[in-house]
Specification:
The protein is an alpha/beta fold and about 290 residues long. Helices cover about 50% and strands about 15% of the residues. It folds into two domains: about 5-225, Spore Coat Polysaccharide Biosynthesis Protein SpsA, Chain A, CATH 3.90.550.10; about 225-280. It is built from eleven helices and seven strands. The radius of gyration is 22 Å and the shape is elongated. The two termini are about 30 Å apart.
Length: about 290
Amino acid sequence: MSPAPATLTSVIIPAFNEAPAIGPLITALRSAAAWHEILVIDDGSSDDTGARAAAAGARVIRHPYNKGNGAAVKSGIRQSTGAFVLIIDADGQHPPGDALRLVSHLDAYDLVIGARSRATQAGVARRLGNAVLNAIASYLTEQRIPDLTSGFRAARRACLAEFLHLIPNGFSTPTTTTLAFMKAGYSVRFEPVEARVRQGASKIRLASDGVGFFLILIKVITIYSPLRVFLPVSAAAFVVGAAYAVWTIVTQSHVTNSSVLLILLSVVILLVGLVSEQISSLRFEGRP
């Protein structure tokens, strides 16, 4: 494996109260390859995460208060100077060897995602939630997505910077960047990885963050491919309205206002979808 991609790669580690894991992670990364730089974004930690990261040899960027995982990633991307970017969680789940595998594919791909096997995704509820999100995202993008929420990923920095304005401050950076890269026509690869048991407690809350992931998914798709959302809703309204109209004609010999309104609603939704699709297309006019 050629070491060239690593020497051009900025490693970004968003961290919030990850003092026990951050030092060993940085040491392992530095032993694995000669990275261009290792940036730890201390997102307002109340422990000594930043001090331990600096002692291990990382460049530390500190937020004065906790802004969220996405905000930390954005700060890292803005401060990075490498041609490529590797984003890795601070909890010690991902071996440095897997990081080298991800960046080794950046000569052919614009985004490489560490796709975790189901067995290594913590908790039955978390695995079920991820499976539902993966299925919805695969339908909306018309491509198979085995792991939508993996935060372990490598990308060309210039491509990633293009979507900074879309990345939310919370825990939806993986969802947003995966969908944005796919819908923008960039080359995306899912590289199988095995995740280890994280150190410390997870910051993600299944109920609240799961809803957030779903809303982000719909938001990004309506930006890049709105008809994938508007067309099924329009078709459903038309089918219900037409079926109800047929039933009332057969049973009551007339068409009700409700069926007419449903059919008109389906037409309006379709027209809004078509206009949204045209607006979406304009986003790429003159795009480098």
